[in-house]
Queue: 2 jobs
Job 1
Amino acid sequence: DKAKTDFSVKPHAMSHIKKVIGVVSGKGGVGKSMVTSLLAVTMSKKGYKCGILDADITGPSIPKAFGVKDKIMSNGEAMLPVYSEGGVPIISINLLLQNETDPVVWRGPVIANTVKQFWSDVIWGDLDYLFIDMPPGTGDVPLTVFQSLPVDAIVVVTSPQELVSMIVAKAVKMAELMKIPVAGLVENMSYFHCPDNGKDYQIFGESHIDEVAGRYGLPVLARIPIDPALAAACDEGRIEEFAGSCMDDAVMMLEDR
Ligand code: ADP
């Protein structure tokens, strides 16, 4: 049984983290980082202290969404996260690189070790929730991350373009292997609400999320529409100013866990 959590990776003595939520997806580009950011923003607005660990090493987009550019401070033993305008501590490889356009060409084990250090060497302080933007897929890197960090629950992000049943099946199997509960599913880019005629259009086709959620006995935490304002907020580093309520139900369900 190789898939046991390796609790040898201890958090820093100055980190007290109550809940760790991993956000996963089958592939890149479905909005996993956006969902991670919105969860943290919505929870923060409710008064919880939240942080984000960006473990999507090869496609880090959390710093951009929050508009943070400062470098992580390190004394060789410990690292301090960079705080967003709204006070959310963020750790991401992009905040370590000299140049944010530098590609990360490391191999799996090096990436996994970096993520472990983002847990063990970072002074996170007191947090109610730490959200982890996981590397996409169910490969080597996400597996090692799961084995290294004490993830309490995972949220699976899908979009209607995908073979949702297969992606959810894989995520659920991986979670079972790791003995981590799946908190629920988020469907991103579900529909477009036309402001001119008030109708909803299913741009990427019919949703199968209810059927798949039912099959696994999982809740649908949120259905997020395609929203140009959301895309702009992410791209311009203003995700904390986004006033939408699409994550309110999701946050309530996560609180109840
Ligand atoms: P992932 O983390 O899965 O690779 P991102 O969260 O980085 O994906 O999202 C990819 C791109 O799609 C980003 O530019 C983001 O702003 C945009 N995007 C994601 N979700 C939505 C949405 N619901 N409406 C509009 N744009 C979106």
Job 2
Amino acid sequence: FSAINEEREIERDEFTPGIEPQATWCPGCGDFGVLKALKQAMPEVGKNPDEVALFTGIGCSGKLNSYFNSYGFHTIHGRSLPVARAAKLANPNLEVIAAGGDGDGYGIGGNHTIHTARENHDITYIVFNNEIFGLTKGQTSPTSPKGHKSKTQPHGSAKSPIRPLSQQLNAGATYIARTAAVNPNQAKEIIAEAIEHDGFAHIDFLTQCPTWNKDAKHYVPYTDVQQSDEFDFDVSDRAEAAEMMRKTEERLYEGEVLTGRMYIEDERPSYGEEKRQIGEMPEEPLAERYFDEDAEWE
Ligand code: SF4
């Protein structure tokens, strides 16, 4: 995973493999916006495809690594984060990104999402939040609004939706943001920042599913909270961030879309860094030891 072309300019096209997503993603799907923003973020952070590994869960979003040219691992439902964590610990030089849907990350793999944030693993996690299970044909998901009707909740969901931003703040994520597929420039900037952040970076990425979520918001118009005079808060202040997240999450279900950086904490070391500081892990990447016949193991 060496930076073989450090000096030259990196093109986003280098992250485009020979296959295109039109065959599997529906027209108008928000997933296209995530893919575009992710590819555009790569030149910003100066990463070559051979320096990046993308781990995905199951769902329409899980196909992301088929359309993104890097190392990749399409894992099982809700389990992208444990695999991504292992890869990052074995090779801290690798840029590790995980991605999945709201059903995958907030439902099936909800426990992993909480504990990966708590341990502050140096990973960027992108959750495609379309408020529905898309690939399995439209079941209610953890972010579907209360009263939402679907095949699994034909009389309307009696459950309140999960609040992923607030949950991640409480769990311990050190970078938390919300962006939307309809806002590719902001999305690109947020992904680039998240990748450069040293610690667990959680992006709640609003994506529309026009096929199964017929009532789906298309998340326009949206307000960028960093650009708006209405919201003057300090992203590094935990209490102010919590209040901003409360407003953001409440208003989404009232039809107002707020996006932007919600919380950034730079001081706390990542899990791998702490492990190395206390001597529990060697300084050199474990991945290199696997290929070193003379390496000593305790
Ligand atoms: Fe996108 Fe929904 Fe189609 Fe899946 S089912 S590709 S989430 S529009």
